[in-house]
Amino acid sequence: MNASQLKDLHSTGPSIPFAEIIESSLHTWRAQCWDGEIIPAHGSILTATSGSRTIFGIVHASSIGSLDQQRTVYAYKKSEAQLKQDHPHIFEFLTSTFECLTLGYLEGTSMRYQLAPTPPKIHAFVSAPDQQSLKLFFAQDHYLHTLFSHENQIFALDDLILALIEQLARSNTLTQERLRRFMQTFSLLTANDYRRLKLFLQRAQPLLAAQE
User: Fold this and answer.
1) CA triplet 142, 138, 111: central angle to 5 degrees?
2) C-alpha–C-alpha distance, residues 13 and 15, integer Å
3) pLDDT in tens, 80-133
4) Cα-flanking dihedrals φ and ψ of residue 111, to 5°?
5) 3-class state of residue 14 by DSSP
6) Could you tell me which of 131, 191, 180, 152 has the C-alpha nearest to residue 60?
7) Measured between alpha carbons, how far is residue 118 from residues 5, 24, 37, 108 in Å?
8) Helical axes 176-189 vs 194-210, angle rounded to 10°
9) Which end of the chain is more exposed for a tag (fewer CB within 10 A), N or C?
10) Structural domain boundaries in the chain
11) Quick count: other Cβ atoms within 10 Å of Cβ 131?
C-alpha cells in the first residue's frame, strides 16, 4: 500500500493490511506501519482481525520516529527531495506507529458496541474496513458512548470526533439521517451542554454544509 492508496482508506474493494499490532489491551491497541512514511489519518476507522472477531477501532494518537533507538534524527536543512537524493538511507530507519481505541467488534454477523472479550492478538494485521463493513458499523451511534467513556484519556475528544465526521464524509457514509442522529447522541452525551454543542457545530459547519 502506497501513500496515495492510504488517502482513501475506506475502499469498496477488499481490505489491504498495512500495519501490525505491537501492543494490545482490551480498550486500546498500538500498531506499527510496515512503511515508515505511511500513517493513517487522525480519526480513521480501522480493523484488526483476531481469531473469529473483527475489532473496530479509531485512530486517536500517532507518531513518527527512528526505528533504531541508537540513531537520533537530525535536522539537515534540506527538503525531502534533497534528503532522498543525498541521504536515502535515513528513511530506512523511520517508523510510524498509531494507537486505536476499540469501539466495538464484529462476531459472525453480529455487531457489538463494547469491548471484545480478549484484546487483539499481537502481530495481528491492521487494515481499513471496506465500505460495506463501515456502513454496518455506523448503522448505530453506540460507538460514541465508548468514546465519551474514555474522554479523560483522549486528547481533544471534540477534535477526534470532527476528524471522524470528516472521514465519514469523504467515504460517502455520512447521510443526513445519520448526521442528525449523530448530533442528537453527541448532545445527550455532553449532558445537553449548549455552549459545547454550539462551538462544536460552528467548527463542524464546513463539513455539514458539504452534506447538504
Assistant:
1) 70
2) 7
3) 899 889 888 878 778 899 999 999 999 988 899 999 999 999 999 999 998 888
4) -90, 125
5) coil
6) 152
7) 31, 10, 31, 16
8) 160
9) C
10) 3-152
11) 15
Helix (H/G/I), strand (E/B), else coil: 118:
coil
Summary mean pLDDT of the chain: 85
Angle, nearest 10°, between helix axes 157-170 and 176-189? Answer: 170
118 backbone dihedrals φ, ψ, rounded to 5°? -135, 155
Least confident of 29-38, 42-51, 67-76: 67-76
Dihedral (CA of 79, 85, 90, 94) sign: positive
The residue among 39 and 171 whose pLDDT is bigger is: 39
Contact 80, 91 (CB under 8 A): no
Please report, in angstroms and rounded to a whole number, the separation of the first and last CA atoms in the chain.
33
Please state, as a whole number, how many other Cβ atoms lie within 10 Å of the Cβ of residue 204.
19
Q: Which three cell numbers stand for residue 191?
A: 449532558
Of 141, 83, 55, 172, which is closest to residue 74 (Cα–Cα)? 83
DSSP codes, 161-212: HHHHHHHHHHTT---HHHHHHHHHHHHHHTTT-HHHHHHHHHHHHHHHHHT-
Asked whether the beta carbons of 96 and 124 are under 8 A apart, the reply is: no
Q: Take residue 113 and report the three cell numbers written for it.
A: 458496541
